[in-house]
Here is the input.
Amino acid sequence: MRFSIVTPSFRSEKWLKLCLPSVADQGVVLDHIVQDAGSDDGTLDWLPRDPRVKAFIEKDAGMYDAVNRGLRRATGDILAYLNCDEQYLPGALKQVEAFFEQHPQVDVLFGDVVMVDQTGQYLSHRKMQVPLLYHTWTCHLSTLSCAMFFRRRVVFDYACFFDTRWRDVGDGEWMVRLLQRKVKMAALGQFTSAFTQTGANMSAGGNARRENLELLQTAPRWAQRLRPVFILHHRLRRLLGGMYLQRPFAYDIYTPASPDQRKRHYVEKPVFMRVTAG
Here is the structure.
């Protein structure tokens, strides 16, 4: 089973240098495609010559256009996209590979995520459940793309590329389409990824809030009115599913102070990540 990982890149040299080794050391067969939009921060001084990646330097129409370009170049059976400020944890792709081999009917798989600050220190974590259509459509996407993996057929057989009209919430709109199509999904129940809160993450910006509102307004009127019910149901579902519980654990990531070797971090008092709508 082969993986293709796509990383959209633009002026993120500091974080890209940590993302790349986290993919390269997974110990699975993969190609790592980096779609760079013409960075002028020093990235292009080394990226085209980096043997760990297939680098493509070309202008794009935004992040989701870059992801689509990378997906069209992908040769893998299992696809994913990992932003520059994200990393895979050790052995993550081996766990994903084993799950897909054992569950051939599953098309999309979600892992759990560790949220870290710019130095790699633990902030919180997020456990994933399979998203539900109307909660995703009217509230927010409850999964994170850095821990999402999908079979090649999702994109090519189902023709589900990302809609490039969206700049920040294209993954949410994409998920709505997959849920409408009743694509088979599952949760791994293991930490696979780390997300760095850099202070410049697109999901935290004003445009993302505007686009979330636009996506909400495309939902049926009855669903919009039932939004508080979907929020309550989501929270109860997470509570009953044990999503708010986590024993002490450790994670290993690359950091600005340790860019060539993973550094272990121990979490004695885990706290789950809170999001605006549940």
The longest strand covers residues 185-196. The two ends are 36 Å apart (CA to CA).
